[in-house]
Amino acid sequence: MITIFINGQIFSPTLGNPFVSAMVINGHRITHMGSGDDEEVLRAQTEGQTVNLANRIVLPGFIDGHVHILNFGLSLQKLDLSRCKSLSDIRQTITAYADTHLTEPRILCRGWNQSATHSEALATTLDDLDARPIYIEALDLHSTWCNSAALVELEIHSRSDPPGGKIHRHQDGTPSGLLDEAAQFDIVWPFLDRVTSLEKKLTAVDAAIAAQKRAGYTGLVDMAMTERCWEVLNTYRKERGGFPFHIAAHWLIPYSKNSTEINKHIDRAIALHQDSNRTSTPDFCIAGIKLICDGTVDGCTAAFHEFYGGLSNTVDPIWPADALAAAILRASEAGLQCAIHAIGDRAVTQTIDCLSLVPNLSACRHRIEHLEITTPGDAERLGQMGIVASVQPVHLDPATFGEWPNMLGPERCKRAFAYREFVDGGAPLAFGTDAPTAAHHALPNLYIATTRRSAIDPSLDETINLEQAVSFATAISAATMGAAYASFADSWTGSLLPGFNADFVVADMQCTPEKLLDAQICETWYKGKRTFDINSNSSCF
Question: Where is the Amidohydrolase domain (predicted)?
């Protein structure tokens, strides 16, 4: 089917002009970009359907370069604590929820900002709220705060700390209520997965997909794929006939002191990649592996060269350098793309050092995720080596900056989220949201990147390192063609060009950073099919 779009502002800067007024699609591909009086457009109008864009903006479909699709969907089923500013707020919110959800076997919460409780997380603080197990997941997903009933059903009292994780304990050795890093990933998540039905998981994926379509996404990069998630997404794909966007996944490789155990996980990713890759199944594939090199600032588990305020010791990276380098090289030799979580400057330095050992590094398009605090030298090395800077502007929202100045000091905070340096140094830039650790919406993400102001609370005057803001065009590129490049999809999506997939959004917006919070996604199109229409909130998929 031929569809002609006219009288629009269609973003395609690679054609020499930032905007053209007309676009023709035939089936799932774009066949022409230009003006309404082009011969190709006039000829197509005799054969196809014409859509008058009424001067609205058309952008390439957004690609969330870092998301957790199943966890995002499941988070929509949990009690949201993100607006709670204190322990009292948290307790009142949980109590009100418990009183109206009496049949739920356990109380699952999300969005806990650790600064709201000054990082205190004791089971006894929750025990009087309800007899059922209570799980409070931190906003960054790297920790869970449990009540005593949850600790019992997790059988935590008989466990030791997993490699790369911590079960927080009282002085007498009994668990106190907080589990972080590998204790979260290897204990809490697998348990909750076992007690969550497949039906509930598929419903969660439905909810995630609906939200992503409304936000204008035509592609996702899932950044911590596991057996449980792969099984759910494969089941969904078979039962529903596919997804309304392309998905590339990075297989999570947990750290172990046993190299054989690490290699087992990498080899599993290699086998899956051989069957499902960008060539064989470009819309649903295993792109590479994910390695978590450190934790988070809010949890005081990110690895820095200097210690946190109030602490006398530095935090080590989760992966020792030799193990990290070995894993990267093994995956690289098999053609897998490596995505490494590194938030603190020490973790970033170690990761770049290890990546520098990879032959023909820039061709691999290896990525570092987050890059929240970097040294000036490391910001330069990203571009010199062709390492993708995969970042999530929503994480720098001033409304969530919280205790950073107290934990890191003003000088280190000046190095936070140095996006402009990454761009000026020549690093490929890709945007994501890290949903559900933050809001999944694409346009507020762009607003924060370009203004360094809060999308959560626009009334705030505070900016975070305004000199590190990127331009509107750079932000759009990072959320579209940059994210496509970072997932080896830039030859067929991420840009509006003849021969590319017809993946795009129609938006009611002004192309200035300050107006991005007022912008609206009106339509989302994937492979030439409209998947979202604001006027009917309907889907053709």
Answer: 49-531
